[in-house]
Amino acid sequence: MRSMKSRNEMIEAVRAEMPERRWTHTVGVMETAVVLAERFGADPVKAERAAILHDVAKYWPTSRMETIIREEGLPADLLQYDKELWHAPVGAFVAERDYGVTDPEVLDAIRYHTSGREGMTLMDKIVCLADYMEPGRDFPAVNKIREIAEYSVENALIAGFDSTIAYLLEQGRRVYPLTVMARNDLILFVRESGR
Ligand code: DGI
Ligand code: FE
Ligand code: FE
């Protein structure tokens, strides 16, 4: 029987997988995810756990990620889109295999932290938004996103996806369908829930 690594074991192992500046980003995502979880009523321990692990595969060689995508049955369509998308589903796989995480809420939040998806859970939204707005982030829309996040996780996340999609369009790059579906679905959610 394999048990889950402790918080400190996770922190030390993930830290060793990345350069110092990416670890600083991870700490920012951890702190932001806890704040957002408390603000919007999610479990802060799970949010922090997903945040610790979310970029665990970010610095893995492309070939290593590709092997896992192919051999472990992860969505093969990812291979036709930006490599920046790959570390998220690979990270979820690694969180389960190497860190002993079994909670689907945590694993999904890692899996979808880059692309988003239709029907995002509150945990998915919090980790994805924390990744956009942690204190080290600096891009044109970030202050607006932080302001909106004071009251609406969905509206803040829409602003985040808008900025990513606009950037990809500007660059003439492809947009992964889940990102479009995530944005559309969040807009519907906001409209129907009046948030
Ligand atoms: O890993 P991080 O740098 O902390 O952040 P992330 O996991 O959100 O990765 C974001 C990068 O992925 C960002 O530079 C844009 C790029 N990307 C490429 N294609 C897509 C995409 N992001 C989304 N959401 N959708 C895409 O289709
Ligand atoms: Fe990431
Ligand atoms: Fe990140």
Automatic annotation (TrEMBL):
HD domain ranges (all copies): 22-136
Protein's UniProt keywords contain Secreted: no
PANTHER family listed in its UniProt record: BIS(5'-NUCLEOSYL)-TETRAPHOSPHATASE, SYMMETRICAL (PTHR35795:SF1), SLR1885 PROTEIN (PTHR35795)
Organism (species): Paenibacillus oenotherae
Catalytic activity as recorded in UniProt: P(1),P(4)-bis(5'-adenosyl) tetraphosphate + H2O = 2 ADP + 2 H(+)
Gene3D superfamilies named in the record: Hypothetical protein af1432 (1.10.3210.10)
Top-level enzyme category: hydrolase
InterPro entries (alphabetical): Diverse_Catalytic_Enzymes, HD/PDEase_dom, HD_domain, YqeK
Signal peptide from the UniProt entry: none
NCBIfam families the UniProt entry points to: bis(5'-nucleosyl)-tetraphosphatase (symmetrical) YqeK (TIGR00488)
UniProtKB keywords: Hydrolase, Iron, Metal-binding, Nucleotide-binding
EC number per UniProt: 3.6.1.41
Name of the protein in its database record: bis(5'-nucleosyl)-tetraphosphatase (symmetrical)
Domain of life according to the entry: Bacteria
GO molecular function: bis(5'-nucleosyl)-tetraphosphatase (symmetrical) activity
Stretches assigned to coiled coil: none
